[in-house]
Request: fold
Amino acid sequence: MTGFVSFVSSGPGDPELLTFKAADRLARADVILFDDLSSGPVLGHAGPQAELIAVGKRAGKPSPRQDHVSRLLVDQARTGVRVVRLKSGDCGIFGRLEEEITTLERAGIAYEIIPGVPSACAAAAMAGIPLTRRLTARRVQFITGADVTGDLPQGLNWAALTDPEATTVVYMGKRTFPRLAAELIRHGLPPRTPGLLAEAVSHPQQRLHRASIAQLAEMLSHQHSDQPALILYGALAGGAPEGIPESVPGEGD
Reply:
C-alpha cells in the first residue's frame, strides 16, 4: 500500500492566512515534514496523531540535504500514510518543489499541490500597497537573492531588474542586497529608487522599513538579523501616492 503526499503552502506564517484545504490536510496528516519558516502557530492545525519532522533549511545553519528530504518523503509515503510536506509562502515559489515532486513521480507516489498566500503578496498587504498600478508598475517580478551557495546568483537580467515600470521582490536577499543594489545602480537604476524591507511578515515581530535602495543597502551591510525577510523595490515600494494615508501597523522608523 502506498500513501499520498500533499504539498501544503503555509503562507507567510499567520495561521489565519491558511486556506481551508491546507488546514484540512494538516488536520488529517499522519506525518508532517515542515520547513523552519512553517513552524510555530501553523502547526497548531496538525492533528494529535501527526508525527512532526523538521526538515527546514536556513542560511548559515546546519540543514538537511535536499536529496535526504526527498528520500524521506518517499520512505514515509511507502508506509501507506498521509504525508504533508509543509512549505512557507506558496510552495511553488523558491521552495525546491520541483525536485521533490520529481522524486515522487519516479517512485510512483501520488501527490497534490495546495497553493498558498505568497510572502510577497502578504508583505505588500501588510505595507498597505499594491504590487501593480496601471501605467506606473505594470509588471511584477520575483527573484532570489541567493543561489545554492548563498551567494548572489550569476547571469541576472539587469535590463529587467532595472525596469522603472516593474515592482521587484527579492527573496532570500538580505545578505546579498548591498552587492545587488550596487549592480542595479551601476546598470542605471537611480539610487533613490524606493525600497521596502519586510521582516518576519505576518508574525508578531514583523517590521517594515521604507528607504531608498541605496539606504537599504547601507543599512543591511551593517545589520545581522536572523529574521526572514523580503525586499521590494520600485515606484510602489515607497508607499501610497500623495493624498492616501500611509499608516502601517508595525512599521519601523
User: Anything to note?
Assistant: DSSP finds seven helices and ten strands in the chain. Residues 66-77 form the longest helix (12 residues).
